[in-house]
UniProtKB/TrEMBL annotation:
It comes from Caenorhabditis nigoni. Residues 133-197 form the Sdz-33 F-box domain. This is Sdz-33 F-box domain-containing protein. InterPro entries: F-box_Sdz-33 (IPR012885), Zygotic_Embryogenesis-Asso (IPR053222). It holds the Pfam family FBA_2.
């Protein structure tokens, strides 16, 4: 934070002071329950700014706590991340990136620059629209992509071009007809890297619409509260690889989960 508790807007700004919290996560054994329980011990330090800007503080802290992998969360807001080289030189190599931004041109540009700078394994996006220019920027060959976006106008093409291993899209809905098309293309060999997909479906839980034209194994049904809550089918692609399609219907929300079996 800067003067008068104003948010700092770029990596060259100098903060008033720096709060650093260290958390140590471990397991403790409970003699009474004869089980291990997770525990978190945290300690917060308040350091003067020492005339360092935000970028220098990031480098300083990373030089103290040398880790095997790093994660970073970017809440873009009024901040700008316009210099890819500066971003890359400031941060260590990031394994996971979480980006929160608004669906405007400036925020999307900053998100693009962050993704270009690091090429991470895992990306979580909040409120960012899945536009073509963002989709193909630093999001190739991801291990995991998770999107929380009420602004997303989902298209089947977005799913077809995502070369990721695990994909979760929440806050928006795909039509069951489009998902049916996606699964048909998967049986023909598309999306070979995909191991897991979780999305929300549009409308009511219509299993016939989802599975139309797909050769699937016998369905597995799970009943709950006098209503069929889950239903699962197994399909196979042209390479002999099987995957399970599960439809989950809870509280008027239809979810579709696809898991590739090894």
């Amino acid at each position: 934070m800067g003067d008068n508790h104003e948010e700092l807007k770029n990596l060259n700004d100098i903060p008033i002071d720096v709060d650093v919290t260290i958390e140590k996560r471990s397991l403790i054994f409970d003699d009474d329950d004869m089980e291990f329980w997770p525990t978190v011990v945290s300690k917060t330090y308040f350091w003067s700014n020492q005339e360092k800007n935000i970028g220098q503080w990031i480098q300083h802290i990373c030089s103290i706590f040398r880790c095997d992998s790093y994660e970073a969360g970017f809440s873009i807001g009024k901040r700008t991340f316009g210099d890819i080289k500066s971003i890359r030189n400031t941060f260590p190599k990031l394994r996971k990136i979480v980006i929160s931004c608004e669906p405007n041109e400036q925020d999307i540009t900053s998100a693009q620059n962050i993704l270009r700078a690091f090429q991470p394994e895992t990306v979580h996006l909040y409120s960012a629209p899945l536009q073509e220019n963002l989709q193909h920027t630093g999001m190739r060959n991801l291990k995991e992509l998770e999107i929380h976006s009420p602004h997303l106008n989902p298209r089947i093409e977005d799913l077809l071009t995502m070369n990721v291993e695990r994909c979760t899209i929440l806050g928006t809905q795909f039509s069951l007809r489009d998902l049916n098309r996606f699964f048909k293309l998967w049986t023909k060999g598309s999306n070979r890297r995909l191991n897991y997909l979780f999305v929300h479906g549009e409308g009511v839980a219509d299993w016939n619409a989802l599975m139309k034209g797909l050769q699937a194994g016998e369905a597995i049904r799970i009943q709950g509260e006098q209503v069929e809550r889950e239903k699962e089918h197994t399909i196979q692609n042209c390479y002999g690889i099987c995957g399970t399609i599960k439809m989950i219907n809870i509280r008027l929300v239809v979810s579709v989960e696809f898991t590739v079996l090894n």
